[in-house]
Design goal:
Helix content is about 65%, strand content about 0%. It has about 120 residues and is an all-alpha fold. It has a domain of about 70 residues. The N and C termini lie far apart (about 125 Å).
């Protein structure tokens, strides 16, 4: 029973309820021209904000593009360094092959040993 007493009675509004509902909203009158907002200043402010935003976006885009060119240049230098490394390794492998070492030793006057001799470092001469 207590719940049904809390439900407002819906019916035809009386003069008293109409007056109470209208008192919730302040009376609208004519807007004073001195109190009118200055839309010119507001438009200039919005234009300034949009312009600054566009400049910031353009600057960020320019910096990202510049970084992309730097990255491209660094990749190119890395590829050149890797090619030089591969060429050096090929040259070292070619000079270090047993056939090439034998040819170079023969040019220096080295000859194969006739008998095998071992060094004994424990015996002092």
């Amino acid at each position: 029973m207590a719940i049904t007493t809390l439900i407002p009675v819906i019916g035809a509004p009386t003069a008293r309820t109409k007056k109470a509902l209208l008192n919730l909203v302040p009376a609208l009158g004519k807007i004073n021209t001195q109190e009118k907002l200055n839309t010119r200043k507001f438009q200039l402010l919005l234009g300034l904000v949009v312009t600054v935003d566009l400049l910031v976006i353009a600057t960020l885009n320019l910096l990202m593009t510049q970084d992309a060119f730097t990255l491209q240049h660094l990749k190119h230098e890395r590829n050149i360094a890797l090619d030089q490394r591969d060429a050096t390794l090929r040259l070292v492998n070619a000079k270090g092959s047993p056939d090439q070492l034998a040819v170079q030793a023969h040019k220096l006057g080295m000859v194969p040993a006739q008998e095998i001799k071992y060094l004994d470092l424990a015996v002092k001469p």
